[in-house]
Amino acid sequence: MKSGKFWAWVVFALGAAYFFIPLIATVEFSMRMRRGAYSFDAYQIVLGDPRFQATFGYSVLAAIFTIILGVLIVVPAAYWIRLRLPQLRPIVEFITLLPLVIPAIVIVFGYIRMYGSNSPLPFLATDMGTNALLVIGYAMLALPYMYRAVDTGLRTIDVRTLTEAAQILGAGWGTIIGRVILPNVLIAVLSGAFLTFAIVIGEFTMASLLNRPAFGPYLQNVGANRAYEPAALAIIAFAITWGCMSLIQILSRFAPRSANRPN
Amino acid sequence: MAEPFLSIQHVRKSFGATTVVEDFNLDVEPGEFVSFLGPSGCGKTTVLRMVAGFEEPSAGKIVVAGKDITRLKPNQRNVGMVFQAYALFPNLTVAQNIGFGLKVAGMPKADIDRRVAEMLDIIKLPQMADRYPYQLSGGQQQRIALARAIAPKPKLLLLDEPLSALDAKVRVSLREEIRSIQKKLGITTIFVTHDQEEALSISDRIAVMYGGKAEQVGTPFEIYNRPATKFVANFVGTLNVLEGTVTDAASGRVRVNSEEVLLKGKLNGSKSGDTLSLALRPEAISLGRQPGRDSSLSGEISEVHFLGSVIRVRVGIGGSTVSLDTFNSPAAPPPAVGEKAEISFSSSDMLVLH
What we know:
Helices cover 77% and strands 0% of the residues of chain A. Chain A is an all-alpha fold and 263 residues long. Chain B: It comes from Mesorhizobium kowhaii.
């Protein structure tokens, strides 16, 4: 074996160990609830806990609404910027990166000030309003990922020519976006959707400060008061995230291939 | 003269301070095949895009079948278009691509299927209905794009350099196919190209464009044999350009190198002593004196290229070089470089460039 290949394998093994050892340790610890034997007791307790089901269900619902809101905002915006306003792309990219720079706690305090019961837009006056505000906040947090995913998808197709080809065949904007653009960037949109899902499921700050019964605050609460269950929860959350990532990989195989490959 | 089917009247297009199309006028008869020919940046695609509705003219109007369509949106014009990059929808099959415009128009499914099958027969790809664009060659994709454009029976067909992305052999066969389909359907067609051979071979008329203007509009024969401007003469075909001085304007005598050529009726108001650019197509020139050729010039052979069936010869005349082709004859060896030579031509074939 060539020495270069040997060292490549060593580096790979070290990287894999760095990643897998804590994971294996967490799995192992989560299964030691029963004295002297490995068991799935911690998982049974967690999955059987009504608060787990309620908070997880709440976060899944919030994630679905966040994805819908994100797609409705990002797809037309990214499409229009590519088609008609390419000069605005750097500015929009900068704006979409802001959620990575501004801490969620700053944003949520801003929300509380702006949308309190006495404000002109009193989102926080009702539970539904607060839920809506949380979804809006999540859509904003997921913006860097959703925008990049969709923009990358749009880059793989000739947006302008496909739009013009559809227009000259009589299509209006709804048909163009629904039948031509969206199906060709669907995999990118789904990638953004799964990343959004992974972010929303584990989000703590916004849900906690807006006092919503979400999965993130539940994870923190269990982690602070129990021994084995937090490890089981961490593994479950990890499995959900990895499940989402795997789905992105699987779906990307079904992406429509470009028609514009050279002859 | 019958009412033109497409009338482009005094159209101008500016992007900011840059004017890309200036006072463009063209009338196209029903069923006519007109090519816009010109170098990159001459405005030919911009005119086509204005006819399609993708660009709005800064001034002027566009009339199709008596209706002013200048301000109509592209999806309201009933115009078909084929793009250079094919622009097939990657997520749809060939049949779905061809049927796209019909579905948008709300045609019943059975009628769409019938029309798609008819289109596939016309483009001779009946077995490709269920394929996806990525499974087709460039030539096949462009034929599908053509079928998709003509399926909704548009009033006008626009072809924006549809052959540019294809290899040479496919280009020739596809251009013949496009012309034959166009003739069969009788659809009025505008074809944009920068390839003169393409334009000359398939057009009823050609609009040669330069600097945002139509330099000349005419049949391929007129454009090639009677170019109206220096640009048209240089751009279309190969041209030998010689400098000449008018020695006697009244009788049409012009001195080229040290010999005189008689150009009666071609001097267009030039005065004695004026310098002129004279042009000759290679096929109008013969090596040596030939019967029926009233003019000749002497020079020296500077290059000889044996190309099989023809021999390309370059003859230096004064400060200019004249290129001509002669047929290969096994009985006669090719001329040698450095030999003195005489070229002959008919003065009626000589063009005076203004």
